[in-house]
Amino acid sequence: MDGNKLELTVKPTSDLPASYKAIPEADMEGKEAAVTRPKSIVKSKPPTPEADGADEKMLPNEEAVVAKQSPNEKQNGDAKLDIGELKTAFVGLTKEELMKYANDPFWVRLRWFLFITFWILWGMMLLGAVMIILAAPKCSPPPPRTWWEKGPLAELEDTNPEQINKLKELGVTGVIIQWPEDAYTSFDQNHEFVKTIKQYKDQEVNVIVELEPGTSKIWFNESESQNSEFGDYYIWKQPKIVNNADGPQPPNNWVTVKNTSSWTYSESRKEFYYSPQGRPQLNFRNPNVTDEFAKVIKKFLGYGASGVRLRGAPYLLADGKFEDEIILQNAPGCFMTDYCSYSHSKTENLLELSTLLKEWRVVVKNMTENGPFMVADDLSNIEAYKVNNSFIVDLPLQSHLFHKSNANVTNIVQMLNSTFNINNITWPLWKINSTSEWDIITYLIPGTPLVTSTTVQNKQLLKMRESPSVMRGSFSFHAVKNNTVFAFIRVTAGNPGILVALNPSDNRTVVDFPANIKAVSEEVTVQLWSENYHEPDMIINVKQNAHSIPISPRSAIVLSYVPPSK
């Protein structure tokens, strides 16, 4: 039908359905209208399958189709519809269109700029991460314990080499042997003492030589005769002028431990020389005398000694002004002129002592692989053995902790608090009268035990001492069960904790450990006990309820536990 033409126009209006536009009435003039047409837009509805028997689909994107009459068509009853262009969403450039920009200088430069900027930023972030790691505080593991810290050490009077094997069975890593002669005496490699050092060293047992640096008679005659080179190698002082005195009087009130004057008069020189131990005391305020003992240390280390221990260290220096000692008021059990009635602040443990000892310590450390530099005396004035708040002596001796006279929990706790918390001694040398229960304590507490050739061997205790919890673990001590039981724990990350308990009393007791020590778990495993421990229900390597652990009188027990998770 040429006369019936439709002009369809498609408009991108998603909200209007397909419709027909009415034909103007002017086109209908002179014609008899067979059908009356509406004058308004009639919205069509999608045909249903029942109406035409076929499914119809909407145009893409549900665009509205608007039918409009063509102005060029005047035929009666004819309508021409225009269908506009179908508009779709932008789908990007084609390959040919993109290639137009591929080699464009602007886009080439932009791509290179973004590429280089990315890798620069990535490199800066990587560098920043590395710098943060390097600048972060290091968490390096602590250095391993030295041979003299691992211990135990043995203090020997008899240097018979036949006992070396027995000492090795005791786990001894080093022995302390006293030099029997004047420290400044000349000797060579043929001396019996040097041979002994070599014998121990050949059996992988280190030797710490004990020397007394404070006294010697080597240069005394020259000093007494006022030889210009040795005149002040000793401490000399003019007599005190006292009217109507019976002979020369000592320059001050300094006394020895035997309650006699610390001064001895020389008829030859007409002066007093200082002799606090009954022998002339060397003057270590003279640098030449200090160097003389440094030579002695080097000689012994050169012959194979692995460390040095000094005897009589508290008396090495005396007050340069020679002032009187302060008399203590109402000193218990002391008479006015007794040794115990004075403060001894002018003659013992002077603060300058630390500077003197530091010089000799440097010699020992430089000539050995971190060998020990020790003193044989208990440290009554800790500050005299520190430089910049750090100890300059190794293994400070603790000999009064486990005496039977002090064997009660209160005294033990007080002494440990003084040692570790007040004096800040981290690894002392423990000297005890060896018994089964005290051995357990001193082998597992922080520090090195000092044994003798008569100490009983305990292989299990030695093995337990080598564990990380004992060598590196934290330490806390407690008085439990109304101060009747002493207990301490050793624990380090990733290892079982060790619980040690001592009952020094004459009564059997049962302890609830988790109630007294929060770090202890609900169950513990029995590891070891002392000879006096007699509890039939306790079995080695068997778990026990930690709330009810029995401890026999005057005995000790060692338990292991898994630290509770935090």
Question: Would you kindly provide a brief summary of this structure?
Answer:
With 566 residues, this protein is α/β, with parallel strands linked by helices. It contains 14 helices and 25 strands.
State the end-to-end CA separation: 94 Å
Radius of gyration: 50 Å
The overall pLDDT, averaged over residues, is 84
Helix content class: 10-25%
Work out the strand percent. Answer: 15-25%
Individual helix count: 14
Count of distinct strands: 25
Low-confidence stretches: 1-21, 25-70
Q: Describe the global form.
A: extended
Placed side by side, the strands forming the largest sheet appear as 12-11-7-6-5-17-16-15
Return the structural class.
alpha/beta
Q: Report on the biggest sheet.
A: 8 strands, parallel
Question: Would you mind describing this structure in some detail?
Answer:
- The protein is an alpha/beta fold and 566 residues long.
- Among the domains are: 1-91, no CATH class; 95-135.
- Helices cover 24% and strands 18% of the residues.
- The chain has 14 helices and 25 strands.
- The strands form six sheets. An eight-stranded parallel β-sheet has the order 12-11-7-6-5-17-16-15. Strands 18-19-20-25-22-23 form a six-stranded antiparallel β-sheet. A four-stranded mixed β-sheet has the order 1-4-2-3, with no helix packed on it.
- Helix 10 links the parallel strand 15 and strand 16 (429-431).
- Helix 8 (287-302) packs parallel to helix 9.
- The chain is extended and about 130 Å long.
- The two termini are 94 Å apart.
- The model is unreliable at 1-21 and 25-70 (pLDDT under 50).
